[in-house]
Amino acid sequence: MIEPQPAVQPQPSNATGSARGKKRRFGGTEAQIRSALKFYKVLAYLTGSMLLLLCGELIARYAFGQYLFAGGTDAVTGQPHFLGFADAEPAGVLGGVNLSVAVLIVHGWMYVVYLISNFRLWSLMRWPFAKLIILALGGVVPLLSFFVEKKFHAEVEAELAANPQAPKRY
């Protein structure tokens, strides 16, 4: 009589029992991971740049009492105001667009999209939760997004190169 065999033959495990014997698996295909990596890279640079602009705007506001305005009329002289800094209190420009507030709003929404890109990359790579926290801090700490992006970009490339069979899902 023929003995039944399992459909998948068990692989010999590592004799040391370390994690090295485990097969690395990703949460998506290589194309999906590279797409997520590119999306993350673009958002990391945009969010980092907006954060630096936000820091400059906050320094101008709280250290010097100035807002960045575009358009409007100078409140003191009555001359047209094209683009530049004006007093925050009392209002130095009548009408016009307060670009300082626009920088705050744009950075806030850009950070939300940046968090989405972080989550996408993190979930496709199946990293520990601590890496998601480090990725998220990149959009909050000035200049950190540039360094974190470089580190994680290299790490993703190295993991994809070291595990060519891992992303094959389909």
Explain the overall architecture:
This protein has helices spanning about 30-65, 100-125, 130-135, 145-160, and strands at about 65-70, 75, 85, 95, 95-100. The protein is mostly helical and about 170 residues long. The strands form two sheets. A three-stranded antiparallel β-sheet has the order 3-1-5. The chain has a two-stranded antiparallel ribbon with strand order 2-4. Helix 1 packs antiparallel against helix 2 (about 100-125) and helix 1 (about 30-65) runs antiparallel to helix 4 (about 145-160). It is rod-shaped, with a radius of gyration of 25 Å. The two termini are about 35 Å apart.
Please give a handful of descriptors for the protein shown:
single chain, 170 residues, mainly alpha, two-stranded antiparallel ribbon, rod-shaped
Distance separating the two termini? 37 Å
Number of helices: 4
Q: Mind describing the biggest β-sheet?
A: 3 strands, antiparallel
Proportion of helical residues = 40-55%
State the order of secondary-structure elements, H for helix, E for strand.
Answer: HEEEEEHHH
Number of beta-strand segments = 5
Overall shape: rod-shaped
Quaternary state of this entry equals single chain
Would you identify the regions where 5 or more consecutive residues have pLDDT less than 50? Answer: 12-18
Q: Give the neighbour order of strands across the main sheet.
A: 3-1-5
Radius of gyration: 25 Å
Strand content is: 5-15%
Query: From the helix content, strand content and strand pairing, which structural class follows?
Result: mainly alpha
State mean pLDDT (0 to 100 scale): 84
